[in-house]
Amino acid sequence: MESPTPLRLKEARKAAGYTQQKLGLALGMEPNTASARMNQYEKGKHAPDFTTMKRIADELGVPVAYFYCEEDDLAELICAWNNVEQAERVKLLDIFKRTVLESKSETDK
């Protein structure tokens, strides 16, 4: 199975309005290698280590988990979750848990 990271990286970079060069420079890469390094990450030829991916995520305003998530709908949920205040997260998590338990009890009947 292919890693979801390269495609997610490209999508997040474009959504944030960065070129490969601009993102590389924002991360502190050398100007003469920034674009090439980002291109290699997006092509899947090389994978950034976790620390680098965390810096990329912070720069692009997405959670680092987004880059590693296999399922598209879960990746979308991770990004949405990132934009919710902590107090709302507690409420949403409670609703989610109750919904899952109710659904499970219905299927167990």
From TrEMBL:
Chain ranges of the HTH cro/C1-type domain: 9-67
Family annotation (Pfam families): HTH_3 (PF01381)
Family annotation (InterPro entries): Cro/C1-type_HTH, Lambda_DNA-bd_dom_sf
SUPFAM superfamilies: lambda repressor-like DNA-binding domains
Entries under PROSITE patterns matching the protein: HTH_CROC1
Molecular functions per Gene Ontology: DNA binding
Annotated protein name in UniProt: HTH cro/C1-type domain-containing protein
